[in-house]
Amino acid sequence: MIRIAIVTGSTRPRRRTAVVARWVAEVAGRHPAVAAGEAAFEVVDLAEYGLSVLDEPVPALFGDYRNPHTHRWAETIASFDGFVFVTPEYNHSAPAALKNAIDFLFAEWNDKAAGFVSHGVHGGTRAVEHLRLIMTELRVANVRSQVALSVFTDFEITDPTEPGVLTPGPHQEPTLNELLDEVVTWSRVLKPLRTAAPVPAPTG
Predict the structure, then answer these.
(1) How far is CA 163 from CA 16, 104, 107, 110, 134, in A?
(2) How far is residue 85's CA from residue 63's CA, in Å, rounded to a whole number?
(3) CATH of domain 2-196
(4) CA separation for the pair 89, 3 (Å, rounded)
(5) Global pTM?
């Protein structure tokens, strides 16, 4: 079975990102691959991992992890075959918490697939452009389809300090399903590479 993590890419209190991640999980739960027992999706919330600002003394490339929070994070990411990153856009880029979490690891990301669901004033598209570059460096295949949710047209917001209600336009769910199709397919196609080069057990 292919396991896909829906990564909640913000740790801010009252995050709109958590609302979007729940919607992604709901749609993913109806995906044909799930019904057929070929794939499973699980929300992975960065806020639940308590990662500090990167504090490993050895670069992640060497897999020599020293801290308990890093080991826990590495075990989680290693257990998945692909990812759907749900991200807002902060100052023309991805949140620092998400970049930090990505930088903790290396081999655990390799030879997997990723898709992106973004949200923001500009649909979060600029955050995704940066994440695509980062994922490529980590040997993660980026799928083409992308969901970009506009704060103006895909949410009902009465108080800007609250997440609001997600009201995705009629084209958004079909686009999300295309993204999920691609992530599942690419995760499956890349599986022989992961089998041939298993992630080494972190030391330390």
Answers:
(1) 4, 28, 34, 33, 27
(2) 23
(3) 3.40.50.360
(4) 26
(5) 0.94
DSSP states along 107-142: GGGTTEEEEEEEEETTTTHHHHHHHHHHHHHTTEEE
CB 133 within 8 A of CB 104: no
pLDDT in tens, the chain (204 residues): 999 999 999 999 999 999 999 999 999 999 999 999 999 999 999 999 999 999 999 999 999 999 999 999 999 999 999 999 999 999 999 999 999 999 999 999 999 999 999 999 999 999 999 999 999 999 999 999 999 999 999 999 988 888 999 999 999 999 999 999 999 999 999 999 998 765 555 555
Quote helix, strand, coil % in the chain, to nearest 5. Answer: 40, 25, 35
**Strand-pair category, 155-156 with 165-166:** antiparallel
Amino acid at 130: H
Amino acid at 197: A
Burial of residue 128 (number of CB atoms within 10 Å: 0-12, 13-18, 19+): buried
